[in-house]
Amino acid sequence: MYSYVGSSPAAQVKVSDSPAYGKLPPPAVEKKGVMVYRAGERVGFSELKHHVGWMEKHPSNGCVYAAGSGKLRAYKVAADGMLEEFSSADALGNPAHFCLSADGAWALCANYSASTLSVLPIAADGSVGAATDSKHHVVRLNPQLADRQEACHPHQVRLDPGSGAWALACDLGASRVWVYAFDVARGSLAGAANSERHLLLPEASGPRHLDFHPAKPWVYVLCELDGNIVGCRWDAEQGRLTPFGSYYTLPDGVSPWPCPPL
Q1: Could you tell me which InterPro entries the record lists for this protein (predicted)?
Q2: Residue 13 bridge partners (DSSP)
Q3: What are phi and psi of 249, to 5 degrees?
Q4: In Å, how far are 156, 178, 180, 207 from 193, measured between CA atoms?
Q5: In what order do the strands lie in the sheet with 133-136?
Q6: Coil, strand or helix at 223
């Protein structure tokens, strides 16, 4: 019934080359919270004490979850669509993205600046518990790419929609897609940093997001820095990605980064 848009400082910075620059009055006060819409119309603003980034609706308990100021936060939804926070837990970093398991028992967080992935439990009452597992990524990187790739930067984490047995995380800084086995009973991630399951992409590719094809065993990885979408075959039994093609997405006349072929 409702749509939610989280606010953050980045969304409220005055950018001179923005299409709206100079056309809208600047906000008198920096807003922290969530804009609430229904049928395309704004119906209110849930003002909170922190900024809100990625948001997801729980598959069964009616609550909404959001990443905000280093924590995963749980909200109850009022009849008018407004949100009321009732629980939170440390995400072990600053989550740029998180996903909920199909059974709603776990939240997996990708913490961009902290270079970590974390797993947090969601109790029967909807509250968020302390992390049950985490992974911290450190790899050797090219110093010439230090403007955006000075460290590992997990930007998204997804569970495979078939079995939920694998967690895939795009790392913009390391130009990798980390692939870990996910134990749904314990809320743990299994796999070494040098596992052959991890997909190493060309330098300066910067994978940001991925998505699974709804019907075929294919995964598409969006690379922010070189403008490519990398198509991969997905082996759900082995947890392996095998690239089969790269598709350049930017307009004619925009040159890609000089990346070697897959």
Answers
A1: Cycloisomerase_2 (IPR050282), Haem_d1_sf (IPR011048), Lactonase_7-beta_prop (IPR019405), WD40/YVTN_repeat-like_dom_sf (IPR015943)
A2: none
A3: -110, -10
A4: 17, 8, 9, 17
A5: 95-100, 106-111, 116-121, 133-136
A6: strand
- 164-179: pLDDT as tens digits: 999 999 999 999 999 9
Residue that has been written with the tokens 């890609």 in this structure: 256
CA distance 214 to 103: 19
Q: Which residue type sits at 153? A: H
Longest dimension (CA), the chain: 54
pTM of this structure? 0.89
Give the mean pLDDT of the chain.
91
Q: How far is CA 92 from CA 40, 116, 131, in A?
A: 35, 7, 8
Cα→Cα distances 112→34, 57, 137, 153, 208, Å: 21, 22, 11, 5, 10
Model confidence pLDDT, tens digit, residues 115-156: 999 999 999 999 999 999 999 999 999 999 888 899 999 999
Residue whose C-alpha is closest to residue 204's, from 244, 257, 242: 257
Please report whether residue 157 resides in a domain.
yes
- How many domains are there within the chain? 1
- Residue 70: φ, ψ to 5°: 80, 5
* Within a domain: 212: yes
Q: Which residue has the higher pLDDT, 39 or 220?
A: 220
Q: Output the six-digit token pair for 222.
A: 């969006």
Distance CA(260)–CA(249), nearest Å, equals 17
In angstroms, how far is CA 189 from the centroid of its own chain? 17
| CATH, residue 168 | 2.130.10.10
Residue 179's domain comprises 137-262
- Is residue 21 very low, low, confident or very high in pLDDT (cuts 50, 70, 90)? low
